Amino acid sequence: MNTTATSAHETPVLNVGLLGAGTVGSQVAHVLLTRGDELALRSGVRLRLCGIAVRDTAAPRDVELPAELLTTDADAVIDAADVVVELTGGIEPTRKRVLRALQAGTSVITGNKALLAESGRQLQDAAGASGAQLSYEAAVAGAIPIVRPMRDSLAGDRVERFLGIMNGTTNFVLDQMDTTGAAFEDALAEAQRLGYAEADPTADVEGHDAAAKTAVLASLAFHSSYTIEDVHCEGITGVTAEDVAAAREAGYVIKLLSVGERCGDGVNLRVNPVMIPREHVLGGVHGAYNAVFVEAAAAGSLMFYGQGAGGEPTASAVLGDLVSAARAIALGAQGIPLADYAALPAVSMDDVTTRLAVTLAVTDRLGVLARLAQVFADHGVSISTMQQSEDPRVTGTSLLRLVTHSGRHADLMATVEALRSLPVVRDVVSVTPVETGE
Ligand code: NDP
Ligand code: HSE
Question: Model-level pTM?
Answer without folding.
Answer: 0.95
